[in-house]
Amino acid sequence: MEALGPTEMDMIRDMEAYFARGALQHAGWGQKKAALLARAWTVEPWGSILDVGVGRHEHWDKFTPFQRREFRYTGVEGCPSIADAFQAAHPDLTLHRLLFSMLVSSDMRGSDYDAVAMLDVLYHVPSDDLHADMLDFAFAARRTVLLTHSTTECANRGTVPGQDGFDWFPRAFTSPPGWSLVERVDSGPGDGFPQSLYWFRRG
């Protein structure tokens, strides 16, 4: 029998271990994410945003409108220790403790939000089907999508060791019709995984 590939629960287990040893943070990459948030906000401020995969949230903590609570923020996080850390830092904000597979099959919709963010998330997802469902969810947003995607296509969709040996699943992707790419920001030395930030606007 052919062995099953990594699952979402494997991803959660690895993320928990990664978080526990103080990884998931690269100062320069966090600054690039915060700067892109600021540029997107300047062009078209959002009244609400769904942040899928809150991580260490250093980019939000550097983003002044977030600090001032100028919009309705909702987070989604499936890793217990990461969710605990976020809620300890921001007890006033809404956080749903959901696996990504639970999110895309829930009553929540990307269309409920002006913007959807999936920053430093998609290349950790081992399933091609879940990856596609998450992109569909994101691009249902009303106006803005902010996401990180890998810049290298892995021909066999296999596991590629990333920084600290963490699993990395790069894939090619294209945005759906009706969306325009406003800006792409590529990672550089010291930014962790080979990746890019994308800012899309509807229309």
Q: Quick recap of the structure?
A:
With 203 residues, the chain is of the alpha/beta class. It contains seven helices and nine strands, in the order ααβααβαβαβαβββββ.
Question: What can you see in these coordinates?
Answer:
With 203 residues, this protein is an alpha/beta fold. It has a single domain, classed as 3-Layer(aba) Sandwich (Rossmann fold), CATH 3.40.50. The protein has helices at residues 8-20, 27-43, 58-61, 64-67, 80-89, 100-104, 128-138, and strands at 48-52, 72-76, 94-96, 115-118, 144-150, 160-161, 167-168, 179-186, 195-202. A seven-stranded mixed sheet has the order 3-2-1-4-5-9-8, covered by helices on one side. Strands 6-7 form a two-stranded antiparallel ribbon. Residues 154-165 have low confidence and may be disordered.
In terms of topology, how is this protein built?
Blueprint: H1 8-20, H2 27-43, E1 48-52, H3 58-61, H4 64-67, E2 72-76, H5 80-89, E3 94-96, H6 100-104, E4 115-118, H7 128-138, E5 144-150, E6 160-161, E7 167-168, E8 179-186, E9 195-202
Parallel strand pairs: 1-2, 1-4, 2-3, 4-5
Antiparallel strand pairs: 5-9, 6-7, 8-9
Main traits of this protein?
Rossmann fold, globular, 203 residues, two-stranded antiparallel sheet, 7-stranded mixed sheet, alpha/beta, 7 helices
Please trace the helix and strand order, writing H or E for each element.
Answer: HHEHHEHEHEHEEEEE
Helix-and-strand structural type: alpha/beta
Mean pLDDT: 86
How is the quaternary structure best described? single chain
Task: Specify the overall morphology.
Answer: globular
Work out the number of β strands: 9
Binned strand content: 15-25%
Number of domains: 1
| Major pleated sheet | 7 strands, mixed
Regions with pLDDT < 50 over 5+ consecutive residues?
A: 154-165
Rg over CA atoms: 16 Å
How far is the N terminus from the C terminus? Answer: 47 Å
CATH class: Alpha Beta
Using the coordinates shown, work out and report the CATH topology: Rossmann fold
